[in-house]
Amino acid sequence: MPRAVRATIIQPDPQVPLDRFGPWLGSNGVLLRAVPLWKLAVPGVESLGDGVIVLGGQMSARDGDDHPWIGPLKDLLVAAVAAEVPVLAICLGHQLLAEAFGGQVTVSHPGGGEHGAYRVTWHDGAASDPLLGRLTEHGSSLVAQSHSDAVTTLPPGATQLASSAGYPNQAFRVGSAVGVQFHPEASPELMGRWAALGGDDGRTMRRAMHVQDTEVSRTGRLLAQSFCGQLRARALAA
User: Fold this and answer.
1) Which residues pair with 146 in a beta bridge?
2) Which amino acids are annotated catalytic?
């Protein structure tokens, strides 16, 4: 009998949960282990299971003085790629992944960031990417965005996979890791809460995201399913 498929969820911020990815991963038979970084230390690479998701957060990738787990988390991302562990790094996770491998992040980007539903265009390499390939059928996807910081220089040797009109580095791969600036896990309700936390109109954001949720949720669900496929493949190979 094949063993259970397991993944670790690293959560830097209590306000940025796994949200819809929880049931999407669970319905595909993945057992999840949560690591809330305001309570627990960054785990070792040997304990990650078949893959790891690094979620977003309100802090920046440069806030190491206030958040001492940032340095160890960057080290873990490097170790996970060295061990060929599948990694999905979202928003802050995407930015930490970039910096861990020598890229650069601009904090409080002068463009103002993206907040709401935005379209990303897939690059040629995304169609053959094992994680993102299923998303590229129409050349672009509508996704949920909530960021003010941005990856402005990709790591040496990274493959650029997606861009939006204002931010060219929406997705990239380095080894076994993919970083995405957007939030494939975020529901309209969560987007509304984030807008309210930022001092904006949460109800307006929630309503706008509901109108566009057919495509946004499809993108997120396909990404979750593809990640599950990578986890199963690693479990079978173990």
Assistant:
1) 115
2) 91, 183, 185
